[in-house]
Design a protein that fits this description.
Bound molecules: pyridoxal-5'-phosphate
Helix content: 25-40%
Strand content: 5-15%
Radius of gyration: 21 Å
Number of helices: 13
Number of strands: 12
Strand order of the largest sheet: 2-1-3-4-7-8
Length: 329
């Protein structure tokens, strides 16, 4: 697909999401997870996250299922995989689809099984900030041939047979049996993606080394607490997220953010909870208070730079910047 967003959209279309259907989504994600539900005519239902990991809470998911629920869209926030055994059971018991937005988690695994092998449909992004890139691009992984055929058709104008089929049959004929779009990825981008794929394991390893150094550093800083890493998984560390107790620090996050940038540390914030964006407030009546764990976390989180090209000096500079911030009193 030509982006993670179009991959999500195509996946939701293949699952038949439409008006009147509810899709459960976490608020701690990039807006595309919810936006694509709306673009399909469905209704996103925001379900809160676990305070330790900021991953969607399977028990709350279970409680939020209604007769209108058609799918659960789980997000591997920061690159850590959700509890797919539990979510899988919840989805199966309720008879709803489970869709994985794994845009952060390519290269990660859970209980020895790679991300992408746990679900009917798993979606990836190849945007430049993601684990590997094709400039822009996306991918859906599935072992369901019925869904895969539908998705290939939808991303290619709804045409029921591609050029290669026609060439084989020596025929010009094709039929439009469904509506479709052009969400194809170019061959040039695919070539880039394939060469990037060879580097993925080494890059994930480097991200984990950097994360380990941050873990060691932040364990000496009482006002800082990195998100918890669960056992039995390989974290892809798309993001390294730390909570800071800004009240005890006596400084607002905005000032701390500026301070860190002025000291050469390019922190960021992921994410403004999606249900707090004006579009969702205006069109879906969402409001503060709906997902208190995500809302509280949002006030405290900073994303610390992590990318495979960082060297030891870069890591040290980040730690020094935080040390300066956190030891001010
Ligand atoms: C990046 C991202 C997307 C969208 O991917 P694009 O390739 O930028 O369209 C969707 N969901 C999550 C969680 C993402 O991080």
């Amino acid at each position: 697909m030509n982006s993670g967003t179009s991959a999500l959209w195509v996946a939701l279309a293949a699952l038949g999401i439409g008006p009147g259907d509810e899709v459960i989504v976490p608020p701690m994600t990039f807006a595309a997870t919810a936006n694509t539900v709306v673009l399909q005519g469905g209704t996103p239902v925001f379900v809160d996250v676990d305070p330790d990991t900021l991953l969607i809470d399977a028990q709350l998911v279970k409680a939020a299922i209604t007769p209108k629920t058609k799918a659960i869209a789980a997000v591997d926030y920061a690159g850590q995989m959700c509890d797919y055994e539990e979510l899988g059971t919840v989805a199966k018991d309720a008879g709803v689809f489970l869709l994985y937005d794994a845009c952060h988690a390519l290269g990660g695994s859970l209980k020895g099984k790679p991300c992408g092998s746990w679900a009917d449909l798993t979606v990836f992004s190849f945007h430049p900030v993601k684990p590997i890139t094709t400039g822009e691009g996306g991918m859906i992984v599935t072992d369901r041939s019925d869904l895969s055929e539908k998705m290939m058709q939808f991303r290619n104008h709804g045409i029921d047979r591609d050029l290669h089929h026609r060439r084989e049959k020596i025929s010009w004929e094709y039929r439009i049996t469904e509506l479709g779009v052009n969400y194809r990825l170019t061959d040039i981008q695919c070539a880039l993606g394939i060469s990037q794929l060879e580097k993925l394991d080494a890059w994930i390893e480097r991200r984990n080394e950097i994360a380990l150094e941050y873990d060691r550093f932040f364990s000496t800083m009482p006002l800082a607490a990195p998100l918890k890493k669960k056992p039995d998984l390989v974290h892809a560390y798309h993001l390294y997220v730390v909570r800071i107790d800004f009240n005890r620090l006596g400084m607002s996050r905005r000032d701390a953010f500026t301070f860190l940038h002025e000291n050469g540390v390019g922190v960021n914030v992921h994410y403004i909870p999606v249900h707090l964006h004006p579009y969702y407030k205006n069109h879906f009546n969402t409001a503060k208070g709906m997902c208190p764990v995500a809302e509280d976390a949002y006030e405290q989180i900073l994303t610390v730079p992590v990318f495979p090209g960082m060297d030891q000096d870069d890591v040290r500079q980040v730690c020094l910047g935080f040390e300066k911030l956190l030891n001010q009193k």
